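Retry 2 of 3 after timeout on previous attempt. Resubmitting structure tokens to design endpoint.
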């Protein structure tokens, strides 16, 4: 069942962007869309981009799997426009949206992250008004980097996000808890290797299959 989100109009991500040294978006669509299958959208960053291939493999002949990954953080006004542009370009109805955000944008405080999160939810609901949603917790890092990312800040953002998604009745895919059990699968300070991406993708696909079966 699609959730309805209230937007904090006083802080609707309308402040100036604070770009990182390198900014990027990564959008992937199925090479061959099967009109008989439901459409699934993964939203996130490079962590999501890494487990996308395994999710696509797991859901072969079950769903058309799309990906929108970006370095843009909750709090950055560009994110809402990027999501809208992606939706307009793809022009398909999404049945399930599995989403994450929080590994970028460390110049935005957790207070700003909290203030902007409702408008992020609203933007997702706007591009997929009939979809079921799943929130993926931000994963831990192997090596911390002040002012970010640090695991303390990641945990704080996870608590903030969870306060909103639980209120909206959105289930949690706890990727943070999952990957704390696989500290041997990092390929660098932040990302996981191919084996780690498979572990993540298998859990993501399990949540999506459950969501699709409940529709």
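Retry 2 succeeded. Sequence:
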């Amino acid at each position: 069942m699609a959730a309805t989100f209230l937007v904090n109009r006083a802080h609707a991500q309308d402040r100036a962007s604070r770009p990182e040294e390198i900014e990027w978006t990564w959008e992937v669509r199925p090479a061959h869309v099967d009109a008989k299958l439901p459409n699934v959208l993964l939203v996130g960053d490079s962590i999501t981009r890494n487990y996308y291939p395994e999710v696509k493999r797991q859901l072969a002949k079950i769903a058309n799997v799309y990906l929108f990954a970006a370095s843009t953080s909750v709090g950055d006004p560009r994110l809402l426009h990027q999501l809208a542009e992606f939706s307009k370009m793809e022009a398909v109805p999404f049945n399930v949206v599995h989403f994450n955000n929080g590994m970028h944008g460390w110049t935005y405080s957790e207070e700003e992250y909290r203030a902007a999160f409702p408008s992020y939810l609203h933007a997702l609901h706007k591009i997929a008004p009939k979809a079921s949603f799943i929130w993926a917790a931000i994963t831990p890092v192997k090596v911390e980097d002040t002012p970010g990312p640090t695991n303390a800040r990641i945990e704080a953002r996870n608590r903030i996000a969870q306060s909103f998604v639980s209120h909206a009745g959105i289930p949690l895919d706890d990727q943070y808890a999952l990957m704390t059990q696989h500290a041997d699968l990092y390929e660098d300070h932040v990302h996981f290797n191919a084996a780690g991406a498979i572990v993540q993708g298998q859990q993501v696909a399990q949540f999506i299959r459950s969501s699709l079966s409940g529709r």
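Attempt log closed. The longest helix spans residues 194-213.
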